[in-house]
Amino acid sequence: MDGTLLIGRSSFPYFALVAFEAGGVLRLLLLLLASPLAAILYHLVSERAGIQVLIFSTFAGMRVADIESVARAVLPKFYTADLHPESWRVFSACGRRVVLTANPRVMVEPTLRGFLGADLVLGTEIAAFRGRATGFVKGGAAGVLVGESKAHALRGALGEDCQPEIGLGDRRTDEPFMALCKPLVYHAFTALGVRVTVRGNPPPPSSSSGVLFVCSHRTLLDPIFLSAALGRPVPAVVYSVSRLSELISPIRTVRLSRDRAADAAMIRKLLAEGDLAICPEGTTCREPFLLRFSALFAELTDEIVPVAMVNRMGMFHGTAARGWKGMDPFYFFMNPSPAYEVTFLSKLPAELTCGSGRKSGHEVANYIQRVIAATVSYECTSFTRKDKYRALAGNDGIVGVAS
Hints:
Protein name: Phospholipid/glycerol acyltransferase domain-containing protein
Shape: elongated
GO cellular component, one term: membrane
Order of helices and strands: HHHHHEHEEEHEHEEEHEHEHEEEHEHEH
Structural class: alpha/beta
Pfam families: Acyltransferase (PF01553), HAD_RAM2_N (PF23270)
InterPro entries: HAD_RAM2/GPAT1-8, HAD_sf, Plipid/glycerol_acylTrfase
Helix content: 25-40%
Distance between the termini: 50 Å
Number of helices: 14
Strand order of the largest sheet: 7-14-13-8-11-9-10
Keywords: Acyltransferase, Membrane, Transferase, Transmembrane, Transmembrane helix
Largest sheet: 7 strands, mixed
Strand content: 15-25%
Radius of gyration: 25 Å
Number of strands: 15
């Protein structure tokens, strides 16, 4: 819930609201005094331990009826104000909606069911005695829905063979329950501190020939975030890339030789095996421009899906023109709040392809360049990879590789 359906990644403000509204100033003071211990346990020991401290400090001795009253009358305003617009777009479009959260169910269920349309809420259950919360969790530490506990709770509610269509998560401890879903949609890919936003409708894997994803090129990480958005690894063909980048890449990369016939044969072979990603600009571009698209890809298949890539790099730019390009991914991740936006556009109509539409490769390439530029409000240019490197670095931008 926190960091996925909500923008904020911390549940502490909501615990503080319950503590103050239902327990008064002294209860809020107790929670504030316990918060450093909760933070230390959460980050250095385990999420469960930190959450248990927050639950005990907030709820111990409090009347359950008072907690329910605050959850109904106070919290909905603050939860709904913090909704993440993109997460809400996906969540609201689903049929049956199930929310798994480490937060106490009694605290979040009124908002999720009454205001957000959730059909089922699975959260941490707090223990009570004679109408008052004990501050402990039912089931002990395992009762805090974190990691495998979320997957176990989901299987218990929907059955052992459950396979939800879509899963949204924002941290590594969400991976066990997201592994039960069909496509893994990492709306907030925070394992490396990057927020990924996915727009459009990506096509499913093809049973016949592969789909060619034609991407604008912002950094060397474009194909990796494309694969993350698709929920499956998609190999990429690359022009000039360092050995370091090839070694650390989590997806398969295939180097092109710049020999037109050899490269065409290689791309056809890869498409026969499955989906493929290509960045026809041939190099990255930091500015809001698109370099000229190479026409080779358009002549090899009619199964083309344009993909607009946008990233946010506020301090360090992972798009070197001079120096060691192998460090570009590290510079990108050094930013305080890096972000990627992957937008899947409509599949290229048959009448606009080289095969069925009898268009030239240049016509198709220029059309896709214009469509992507219009999507992200960039400007199309006729500059090539060589033009960029000759202007910025005084060379052709080719990385030499020892044989």
